[in-house]
Predict the 3D structure of the following.
Amino acid sequence: MLEGKKIMVFGERDDISGKAVCTCLEAAGAEIVYEATACFV
Amino acid sequence: MIRYPVIKNCAYCLAHTPDLVRYGSKPRREIAKDPGIEVKMDSLLRNYSEAVCYPPNQTFLGNLSPDELATLPRPWYMNPLASDSDALQKRGLFGEILDQKTFYALLLLADVLSPPLFHMQEGVREKLQRRVAEHHLLKNIPSSNQREVSGMARSESLLPPGLPLRNGEAEYGYFLGDLREEARGDSNLQGPELLENICTKASAALALQWLLHREGIEPGQIDFLISCGEEACGDRYQRGGGGMAKAIGEMCGCLNAAGMDIKNFCAAPVSALVTAGSLVQSGVFKRVAVVGGGSLAKLGMKSQAFLQNNMVILDDTLASMAFLVSEDDQKSPIIRLEQGAVGTVPIGAGSAEEEVFRHYLLKPLENLGLQFRDIDKFAPELQNPEIMEFAGSGDVAMKNYRKIAAMAVRAGQMDKSEMGTWINKIGMPGFAPTQGHIPSAVPYIGHAMEAMKKGEIKRVMFLARASLFLNRCTNLLDGVSFIMERNPALSGK
């Protein structure tokens, strides 16, 4: 579904972590070019 | 039979410090870019009475239970408790909310440096000393520093500029930082950094005073102190070196206590309680006090959202807490500390969400032969949602409850359709100020102790998370948990 797409991922510690989002997107064929998980507390 | 340590007592305090919001990390950076922000910020600060009437603050102090808070209409800041309400008190079951002037007086007491960190306007020091003398607990704290910086010192062009200390319209003086030659050029010893440290020390000392008062013991009866604050004391050669526990204990007269600091970001209080319990269970110490002071850096952390919405700035309050961990008294709640009972996240687990929760939530339950439904209440991150939501960060407690419930579903212990109802039963709204380590699970300990006394609940799981990745040395995050239970000796009572 996302083959050939380059994606930047921003996650949140107490919500959806960047790593979880990456796992989903990679499974859909995307290339993750940047990932960061932030702490807002 | 295992003899568990108990959480014998606790204290929670607040200090309403609107004029220190400008020295929080976020406001300070924004004001440096646009000084006009300070003027707007001033117009949106709450007064003391508004902070006292604010329902989450009354919950933190123990005058309202989290369940009662959940029934109050939101937004809470627009629905303050009525000033004639029984619940509206400056003092609560667990501690008190100090006004700014009294907190400044406490800051003066915390200053041990010579020349002192504060330069007060004429007459202010005496005014603040009177405030201390009138306070039933602060009057016990000996004044360590009576000296003034001379008027000449302030005009010395080589000295760093001081941070103006105001109390509303009144100018009180300056916070100077370390003026000695050895501190010159050391960014760790300037006004903003040392004010942060001294605020942690002073607010923690207030909570420790309340703990001693509530327990009815002398300071000399504490054997060991553990500080779990988020400050980083030390100079350029040992930034974050610590020593806060003993600084707090010294201020409160705990002359027989040794101490140390525990660092684990927001999870430090839970890590400290587990350590304290272990020290008591092993027989190394009999009475260990865990103390956590407030975070100046986090005042105004979400203020940008309040400024944009022209609403009152809600993150204007320093918070602190203290816990007494001691040998089993056959009454107080126990900390389960047998092998496998404490939830941890091993390095090899990585930072994937499900793995983290599996280790610090599911595994301890499995190790103790418990099911999710055997826990009456879960206490995760308990940040006041009202502060978080305006800043776009959402309801942090609820996010954690959804993950806890999802893990129960994944473990086959619950149907997905039951999640909402179960969360209502085992959850609670966040009620702690956004002070980093302070909201991390442990604000519920006091309420849990009260509910256990009444026999309303038997078992609580405290789950704290730590953003280790903020240290820029790892991408890991951490989780630490423990289970607190009604003392088995009370069974049938």
